[in-house]
C-alpha cells in the first residue's frame, strides 16, 4: 500500500516541464501587443476603437472557452488537449504574423486565444493531481512564477521589439518557439485516456458563451463607451440573464459543464472572493500607472515597461518562495501581510504628483508587486485544497473564468472612476483659473488644467483601488488552512482518483 501510494503521488516532471514551457509562451502573448497598438493603428489604418479588439477579442475568446475546460479535461487526455492548445496557438500566431489587414490579424488573435484558454486550466489541473497537499504550495509557486512573470515582461519586450523591428516581429519570433514546443510535446507526452461517456451539454455551452461573452464585452467597452451607453447596459443585462439560467441548469444536470457545487466549500468561496477583489484592484497598477507615466510625466513606452519590470521580476521570483512558506505556515499569514503591503502601497499611489520621480514610481510599484506575490497563489491554492479530487477541473475552470471577468470589471470600474473624476477636477480647476485670472492676473493654460485634472482622476482611481484591497485584507483574516476531502484522497490514492491522475502517476 505504501509503495502504491508513493507511486500514485510521484509527480510527472517531464509532462509538467513541457506544459510549463507551453504555458509561458501562451501567457506571454496575453500582454505582448499592448505597447504595439499605436504601430498597428498606423500600419493597418484603423482607429483606437477598432484596434482595441486585438486585446478585447483575445479576452472574450478566453472568457468563452475557459468554462468548457472542466469538460475537456475530464473527456480528453493531457496529450490530446496540449496538442490542440499549442496547435491552435501556433496556427493563430502564423496567421497574425502575416496579416496585412486588420480582420486577418483579429482572426489570428482569436485563434491564438482559443489555444491559450486551454493551457492555463490544463496546467493547473495537472499540478493539483501530481502533488500531494503537503507539497502543493511549492509546486503552485512555480506555476505562479510562470503565470506572473510571462505577461508582466510582455510590455517591456514588446517595447524593445517595436522600437527595432516591425510589429509583426512579435509574432514571427514566437512562431518557431511555439512550433518546437508543439513537436516536443507530441513526442514526450504519452498519456492515454479510456473512452469516457461524457457529453457536452450544448444548451449549457450556448448559455455560458452568451453569458460570459456578454459580460466581458459589456464591462470591457464600458470604459470607452460609458455606463450610460445602451450597448453596454444591454450586453451586461443579457450576460446576467444568460448566466443565471446557466447556473440553475448546472444544478439540474447529472454531469454539469461547470459544477457550481465547488462553492459548498467555504475556503474555496472565500478564496474566490479575495482573488476577484484583488484582481480588480491589481489593474490600477497595470492600467493607470502607464497612463500617468506616459501622459503626465512624458516617459516613453519602453521606459514605462522598464519601470514596471523590477516589480514583475520580484513578483515572479517570490512566487516559489511564497509557495514553500505556504506549505509551512498556511495561507492566512501570507495573505494578511501581502494585502497590508498592497493596501498601503496603493494608497501611496493615490498621493502621486507632477514631481514624483521615475525611481520613486519604480520602487513603489516593486513594493506593491512584492505584496501581490503573497496573495494570489497561496489564497487560490488554499481554496483548491479543500475540494475533492473530482472537482479540481471545475475549481480551476471557475477560478480562471472569474479572473477574466474580474479583470474586465476592474478595468471598466477604474477607467470610469478616472474619467468621471478627471471631468470633475477639470471643471473645478477651470473655475479656479478664472478666479485667479480675475483676481491676481495669473493665467493657467488649458494643457495645464487637462494634466492636473487627469492627475486628480488617476489619484482618485488609485484611492478606490486601495479601498478594494482593504476589503480583501478584512476577508483574509477569515482564511483557515484547508483540510478537506483532498486529504482523504491523498491518504487513499485509489479512491476517487480521476483518469488524469492515474495516467500522470504511471
From TrEMBL:
Keyword check for Transmembrane: yes
Residue stretches making up the Major facilitator superfamily (MFS) profile domain: 15-484
Keyword NAD: no
Pfam families per record: MFS_1
SUPFAM superfamilies: MFS general substrate transporter
Recorded topology in the membrane: Multi-pass membrane protein
Gene Ontology cellular component annotations, sorted alphabetically: plasma membrane
GO molecular function terms attached to this record: transmembrane transporter activity
Location of the protein in the cell: Cell membrane
Transmembrane segments: 12-33, 53-74, 81-105, 111-131, 138-157, 169-188, 200-219, 231-248, 268-289, 295-317, 329-349, 461-479
Domain of life: Bacteria
Annotated segments matching region Disordered: 486-506
Entry keywords, A to Z: Cell membrane, Membrane, Transmembrane, Transmembrane helix, Transport
Family statement drawn from the similarity comment of this UniProt entry: Belongs to the major facilitator superfamily. EmrB family.
Name of the protein described by the UniProt record: Drug resistance transporter, EmrB/QacA subfamily
Organism: Caldibacillus debilis GB1
